[in-house]
Specification:
Shape: globular
Strand content: 5-15%
Number of helices: 14
Number of strands: 7
Largest sheet: 5 strands, parallel
Length: 298
């Protein structure tokens, strides 16, 4: 009972700090069980964490292609990237390195077992290594937009992560056209914001990511656009694999890249954009080197 009480107190503090929406609170209610489950898994399974060479996480914006990139990297024989675990939430709630790693491995296996379908897309790649691994050299979690929200709430969380996992950190920042990100946020969020609210929310994430970029070492940061990943998936995937310092096996690169769809969805065309709002987004984007080269048309 003491364990559940301790975790319950951590959950309350975490939720209060972030002002989580109801859907996040539902996830928090599962944390006491996750705490116990991760302890049990570590005592029963002999995972060799000593072979792991780095921890990988995504930062960015919801609906920017993180699921696709995470699933393709997870197909590499030496990489495990869990889907939507939200590892930083567990870090903030006081889970240990071993508990977080066990939850990542479990989440990856479960997601694969269910077919790797998400928001209407199929991310399974037959014949590769999703849900399993050969030599576990890279471990991490795909929660791009959520990770940026943690950065907003607790700017020093990367340093806390670095200390807890005791590994080099690799950060993947995926950028998509701001108008597409903002339009998707406005359309898909559970409580639909106004267009101005969606714009402001987007740029809060942008600022958090830009600040993080300025604070980490060059070899800890890999930045790519959703659009370039789709237009030249083999080249971009090879860049990502080399960034993680694992072998870019040619058969893996070709099979994984073949899963990439032909063209990005232009979500910006699915809402009405007053010209003054487009101009505002264009002007605010000029402050950031990773946004300023986009053309702001609908």
């Amino acid at each position: 009972m003491a364990v559940f009480k301790k975790v319950g107190e951590q959950i309350t503090a975490l939720s209060d700090a972030l002002g989580f929406e109801r859907r996040d609170l539902r996830a928090d209610l599962g944390m006491p069980w996750d705490y116990v489950k991760s302890k049990i898994m570590n005592s029963h399974f002999k995972w060799d964490y000593d072979e792991i060479e780095c921890y990988c996480m995504f930062v960015g914006y919801p609906r920017s292609g993180h699921t696709l990139v995470g699933s393709l990297l997870d197909a590499h024989p030496d990489v495990v990237i869990s889907h939507e675990l939200d590892a930083l939430r567990y870090l903030r709630a006081g889970f240990s390195r071993e508990q977080i790693f066990s939850l990542i491995l479990h989440k990856d296996k479960v997601f694969t077992g269910k077919g790797r379908e998400w928001t209407g897309y199929d991310y399974a790649i037959e014949g590769l290594w999703q849900g399993r691994f050969r030599n576990l050299k890279v471990i991490g979690d795909k929660k791009g937009g959520g990770s940026s929200r943690h950065l907003q709430a607790k700017p020093d969380i990367i340093e806390k992560l670095r200390k807890e996992v005791q590994l080099p950190i690799k950060l993947i920042h995926i950028v998509r056209h701001p108008l597409d990100n903002i339009a998707t946020h406005k359309r898909k969020w559970s409580v639909q914001p106004s267009l101005q609210e969606a714009i402001d929310s987007y740029f809060k994430r942008v600022e958090a990511n830009a600040k993080l970029k300025s604070e980490v070492a060059e070899n800890e940061w890999c930045e790519l656009t959703h659009e370039e990943f789709i237009s030249d998936s083999e080249k971009t995937l090879r860049t990502l694999v080399e960034f993680l310092e694992v072998e870019p096996y040619e058969d893996y690169i070709k099979a994984a890249a073949a899963k990439v769809f032909d063209s990005p969805s232009k979500s910006r065309t699915k809402i009405e954009w007053p010209q003054e709002m487009i101009d505002q987004v264009a002007e605010r984007s000029q402050k950031y080197d990773f946004l300023k080269d986009y053309e702001f048309t609908v």
